[in-house]
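Section: Multi-chain targets

For targets with more than one molecule, the full set of components is provided together so that the structure can be written out for the assembly as a whole rather than chain by chain. Components appear in the order listed by the source. The example entry contains two components.
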Amino acid sequence: MTASNNNKNSCVTDSNKVSFTFDGKKYFGFDGDTIASALLRNNIKIIGRSFKYHRPRGIYTCGIEEPNALVQVLSESNEPNTRATVKKIYSGINVLSQNRWPSLKNDFGYVNNLLSPLFSAGFYYKTFMGPKGFWKNIYEPLIRRTAGLGKPPKEFRSKSIHNHHNVDIVIVGAGLAGLLAASKFIDSEYDVILLEQDNMLGGSLNSSQKIKTIENLETREWLKKIENLIKKSKNIKIFKNTLATSYNQTNHIIALEDNSVGKPLASHKPELILHKIRTKHTILSNGHIERLISFRNNDLPGVMLAGSFEKYIFRYGVIPETEPIIFTNNSSTFSLLKSLIDLGCKPKAYIDVRDESLIDKKTKNILETNKIPFYFSSEVEGCDGSQMLETISIRNKEMQIKKIKGSMLCISGGINPDVHLFTQSKGLIKWDEKYLTFRPETAFQNTITIGSANGNFNFNKIIEEINEKLSLFKLKELKIDLESDCPEDLNIVELWETISEKKSFWSKSFIDIQNDVTTKDLRQAVTEGFDRIEHLKRFTTNSMGTDQGKISSINSLGIVSKILKKNISEVGTTIYRPPYAPLSFSAIAGRSTYEFYDPTRKTSIHSWHVKNRAIFEDVGQWKRPWYFKKNNKENMYEAVQRESKELRNAAGILDGSTLGKIEIKGKDALEFVNLIYTNAFTKMKPMTARYALMLGEDGMIKDDGIVCKINDQHFIVTTTTGGAAKVLSDMEEYAQTEWPHLNVYLNSITEQFSTFNISGPKSRAIMRKVFSNIDFSNEKFPFMSFKKVNYLDTQVRILRASFTGELGYEVYISPKYGLELWEKFFRYGENLGLIPYGTETMHLLRAEKGYIVVGQDTDGTVTPLDLNLNWMIGKNKKDFIGKRSLSRSDTSRKGRKQLVGILAVDKSKIIEEGQHVVEKSSIPAKIKFPIKYLGHITSSYHSPTLNYYVAMAMIEGGNELIGKKFYVTQNKSLENINVEIVKPIFLDPENKRLLS
Amino acid sequence: MLVINCPYCGERDQSEFSNGGEAHVARPENPETLNDKKWSEYVFIRLNPKGIFKERWVHTHGCRKWFNAVRNTSTDEILKTYKINEKPPSVAEFDTTIKTPSGEPDLGSGNFTVKK
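Its structure, encoded as tokens over all components, is:
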């Protein structure tokens, strides 16, 4: 009744003992063991509790298809939901069972099993409907605590890299078919990649003795020989421990290589490599997956797929149980029978649902010779046991039930070709009446399927199949002798489930073991109208676990087709989506993590900002000083108030290097600029500048900036920091696609210049000191003009412009000299009161003047007319982008939202950005909902110069409402504020400061 | 991910490109002479056929050139790419049967076997 070792014939090294910890207890396994095989070796068969009902669960399979044996690996950053059947142990690995409290044996959540009538399909949708707020605060946290799989990892392991390949052929799966295919390509002209998910080649050759000899060699000898031959061939690369997870368009395959198999995680090396492979042809030889049979309590620890049981014997050298019971509907279990007998073990019983006439001679012989009790035309009605499998009920044709004792039951419900990758590639699959499964039919891409992945379960035909299917490559013919020892055919009969009479809360017949979906749930879902397979899947959560129902999804189709009385091919499959098996976020992220996630762009003055206590704001990828702390105690509000006040009193300097700058050159530059921007540029004098707007064809404002005209063939324009890339792209698009006849050249020069904005009443005095040879008088250097100035061995461009409403200059200099010049400004300007200021102060100062920020005061639905910027539109121009749209019925209608200023009637009140302006001239005691709102506050700041809040808003028909009084809602209090609509300019409406 | 043959650079991964929507929608020469309906057709209305579709792409992370492509939207195969000033190929050049991966009909999408 216990496990024993198969020392004769396995792939693990039993000379190397490895110690590991499971649920706090120390055990020993062998080098090469998975967690599952090592636990079986130690006679541990309960590994976790189930997702919903908290039923005890064991190991069901021996590979990637495992639904049950998921564990948390504490020693690897607490990695949850690790398949115990895949993860190899190493000395010191610390593993915890999942989804149980307080312990695996005594689990409190098991009460869910007794409440199970409540937890049927669609339970969450139906039960937790109200009262309002209960879902978020009570139901969801409660359910989250009891349901679910492992706990989230504690930290993010960002140690993976991505590799790209371009090859001729990818072979997925290095089992018998894959190796034979690869051997054909040896020393050919094709570049080949061979992917194998296991750490050794051979696939099912390692996990059974179905094939005795190949080329007159023992299979393991042959594997060594063929691996050496492939390795020597320079055109074939083998990737072991590499799982193909997605097969995308244009023969693009993504495969994940795990370098940490069987050893602890390296602290400094990437353990995961995500291979992105572009190939010309894909050969899928990724094998098959055995499926289960649903019967009463088919989830009890001790039930295992027959093929997996056999794999434990030969692949891992552990016989999970020396006297198992076998239950099947096909001939694939002959091999297990034979292996057990060869190892001196005797199955306790053999139960076969097929009629004696369908059972092959070999099976009958071995049963009779070894006196194994057999039950033909019989089925397992169900099984029982408190924590583990104890008794099995066998039902014969006459419906008589016989109970036998046993601790392990090996089941086989048939074999499915692994069509997952094939269907991901959009290949069509077809129902095969002979093997009762879906198999690849028509490839959509250059895909070739061979071996059991193609639904070919007959070893004798494999050589012929490979020669034929690979004939297009014109390779040498394979001539290989295979000696197999298994029945020619599967002779499978249909059996998806057995019906049980016994009704109790404990009795359940599972279809999706991981998600705790029962066959009863399928019936209920169909009864409730979810008879489409895609609906049914989502309603019951069938095959939606981390295993994606690999061992059960075809069974559920079978059961549903019976309920609906349709053919399975009519029911259809759900769509197979990548990835084939879960892959961690760290694998997908690759090196794009933490500081490498997104580049950070810094100006040439950045180090100075840091030294001077700047707090930064992210604008796109740029780091911009938001405000400068005078001392550590100063908060943002205080800093911005101080900066604003001092700038209006003396002068301030802003690092504007992040502003987009585009150079436009060419014979037709003037015409191009005229078409791109709304303003008229033809009469503009050289060496002057203009504030300009850029629209979309729909007439909405896209960006703004300053256009500097050097001459008719040469312009320099600025864009907003965030809009720089988009504006350049749009200009390029029009230049190339709509106006290819125009001779223009566009160049992004954002990073070729450091830009400073000096502004404030003292700015002229400071400029005079720094550039002593320039005349900064109003006459010689008027507003919106610019000059080129020699400075050291470079040239500086100085533009008189302002975004603060004060006298101001913009200085453009090569970044090489940026910091030097910036510091010079402070050497000369500090005693005149020059301060650095950040973007927040810039926003405050411009709001006092009613200047807009594109993207804050506008939102893609705002035309220049809505902002009363009619003066910026070159009405006499024949055309510019968006011009026609400004007279569309919608853009010219009355009642559009327009930009206005907002002032609180009680000026001590705070107005918040984003709040609504409510159409009420006085506030009633009790507000009746719904109430009409006219628009919202787009900008609001406390002006230190005026000592009250100034705000701007987009208001329906705003221009006509100037002087009217309304209310503004408030976020945090119930109090609504009485406000007056005013013109959106609060300071210096005559522009005296600007033009001083 | 698709492979796109840039007429200037050759075959590159799709991640280097951006899609620019329907091709050969010329900007009207005299927008002012159009009525609202005609103008709005240019600004807002684009085709979205199932099957052969001519569309614009730009090699954003490459040569930054705009070019045109013929794509079968039902299979997502790019059948041809050509320079912006080249004459558009005639639809007759291509196999116009709508080959949908899961064999669904010409209109609509989804899991055909389920809908049947």
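The CA atoms of residues 28 and 77 of chain B lie 31 Å apart.
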